[in-house]
Amino acid sequence: MKMKKMMDSTTVIITTTDNRVLLQKRDENPDIEYSGYYSLVSGYLEEEETPLDGIIRELKEEFEHKKSQKVHFSSITYLGSEYRADYDRWEYIHHTYLMDDAADIRILEGESFVLLDMDECLRLENLAPHHKLFLLKYRAGLCKIDVREQSKKMFDEITVRDLIKVESVGDVKNYSLLEAGTGFVIGEDTTLSASIPAVEAAKYIGFLQFVPKVLRGNHYHFRKVEYMLILQGRMHATFQKYDDSEAVIEEIWEKGDLVRTLPGCVHTLTALGESNVLTIEFSPQPYVARDVLMNDKK
């Protein structure tokens, strides 16, 4: 008998500004996965909800401040996604800083919460095993998150800029760049060569050619995280949040730009100039037709 697909879920690693990790003690309830265990804050996603919107909802539902109207968390950083084969679902992992004194907050779901150093968390025998995996996998990335930068906005102040990340890879054929986590794109036409390390495991890979004056895209996803590497040419891109047609940003991408687009971001692309643009697109999530939603907000 085939197991019914579970709803996808979203998870957040909450740390304090002195790098302690907040763990929730789950209720003793047989209907709860790993009941009675310590865990990160997580929850199932609603059908038409992005992972980022889901985390914002979970933080609002699960915490309250004893003295003010709401608990203050920093802006949220996307860390990656993991496929749970045992439940046939995707888990999206994020990070945020707790900006309030922990003594001033209370948790509304679960028995209680604790704040532990990372090593203490990983030594717990009753830490939900998939959440232990997330901490092990992303602990190095947590060290690179600047609390001063993240605290400039609160967790529920999401703009379209938060859904896009652009990095440039090298333009010299140097395989040590792969070990450094960047890679390279060199040459033009028949001499073109590109190598990049896998940012996330790729379940979908596509080679796309864009031609001048022809728009492609104008859609968004609720689940699919997309990466695009520009191999040749210059690309014009416009972005907006799926639920906000007013805030639109434009960017120009060039050869060597690696762009990550998160769910909920409407993206429309076209080649600039007279030449075609060559790209590789990949995603940790497989292509699912029902998760391609056309933008009807002009």
UniProtKB/TrEMBL annotation:
Residues 5-140 form the Nudix hydrolase domain. InterPro entries: CapF_C, NUDIX_hydrolase-like_dom_sf, NUDIX_hydrolase_dom, RmlC-like_jellyroll, RmlC_Cupin_sf. CDD domains: NUDIX_Hydrolase (cd18882). It comes from the Bacteria. This is Nudix hydrolase domain-containing protein.
